[in-house]
User: What shape does this take?
Amino acid sequence: MQWNVLERRRPSAMLAAAPDPVWVYFVHSYVVPDGDDVVATCDYGMAVPALVERDNVWATQFHPEKSGTVGLGLLTSFVSAARGSDLSAPLSGHSPRHPRMTPFTVFPAIDLLDGRCVRLYQGDYDQATTYGDDPAAQAAAFCAEGAQWVHAVDLDAARSGLQTNLDAIAAICSVAGDAGVPVQVGGGVRSVAAARELFARGVTRVVLGTAALEDPDLVDTLAASHRVAVGLDARDGEVAVRGWVEGSGRSVADVAARFVDAGVDALVVTDIARDGALVGPDTVGLAALLVDVAIPVLASGGVSTLDDLTTLAAVDVGGRSLAGAVVGRALYEGAFTLGAAIAAVAAVTDPGSSGTHGHGDGRPGTAGSRP
Ligand code: AMZ
Assistant: This one.
């Protein structure tokens, strides 16, 4: 088991824009015979076939899922090719030789249940961990660590539709506002009136989940005058609604397509099985969504290490990148600090920077333009 370098024999979409040298991770158990289909080999005292391609069959001897951004680029190319997408724009993992130009924003999460800061496990209201009873203090702590945005969810409202945490949201917005940090809030925004309650308390952007499924015109209406994101929370590929208690029968890409021209800032895409579970994000699925939908995508659910974050920040699908990630339990459990997360991401997105940067919002070049 080890990292080793590929030696390319011939061009292939699999490695369209992979950097040089191409480091990948092997867990060897067998060697296949050499032949015309071999795209790349690896030196293990002999030239071991490592990448094989015949027509639409691709095979790897190494583990793409363990091979960082090179593996991710390969898997993304595979998804794109399988869907018949145009591969002329190279799909690649991030290379320091081609630093991305768009910001990647880390959104520390404050999930509110009965006025307290909690995290649910896989969205299950019966598996809540309470991390504090002062949401404003939590917001202040995040801001002190350099937060660029704060992501808050009214879990009571997500389940019942009734906004019972408005005082806590106002308090979060007050301290964040003092620090110049915008706040986005989701949960129970299913009417213009509910959105108004939030904007009146200083919320910069609302996240609509259930309403995006059940009343998509509301997204259009709100997005015409305010900042809106669409929250797509999926279990086994099916978008869930009403606090993730009910399924919708529709896929993320299907629902997202409705909002391409709606003027929304972003999609906030949550993999429910990973949420609060510290198992790593669905990086390949998120990258595939970038192929399908031309709306900025924020990843949510599963981030457990700084590597998870830098892998997300490094996603590059034909020049498109993820706009950011929501991080919750990893921060509360002390896996890493928000400051470390922001610095780690900056090292990927802007390798020349010192790790400090301004407010990103998921929309390249439009930070702070509305409202
Ligand atoms: O954890 C949950 N059960 C949960 C959760 N975190 N249910 C909903 N939400 C969040 C979504 C989105 O930000 O991620 O609430 C928002 C969607 O709420 P609504 O009411 O618009 O569906």
